[in-house]
Amino acid sequence: MKFALVLSGVCAVSLAGCGAKADQKKAAAPPPPLVQVVQVVPTDTPIFAEYSAQTFARDLVDVQGRVDGFIQKRLFTVGADVAEDQILYELDKRPYEADVAKAKGEVAQAEANLEFARNQVALVQAQADLAQAEANLSKANQDVARLEPLAKEEAAPKQDLDNAVSAQKANEANVAARRANVQQQRLSTTAQIATAAAQLDSNRASLRTAELNLEYATIHAPIAGRIGDTLIPVGGLVSKTSPTPLTTIVPLDPIWVRFKVSESEYLTYENRADRPPQSSFALEMLLADGTRHPYTGRIQNSTNQVDSKTGTLELQATFPNPKHDILPGQFGRVRFKTDERKGALVVPQRAMQELQGLQSVFVVSPDNKVLARSVIPGDRVGDGWIITQGLEPGDRVIVEGTLKIRPGMLVNPQPYKSPGVKN
Question: How far apart are CA 222 and CA 229, in angstroms?
Answer without folding.
Answer: 16
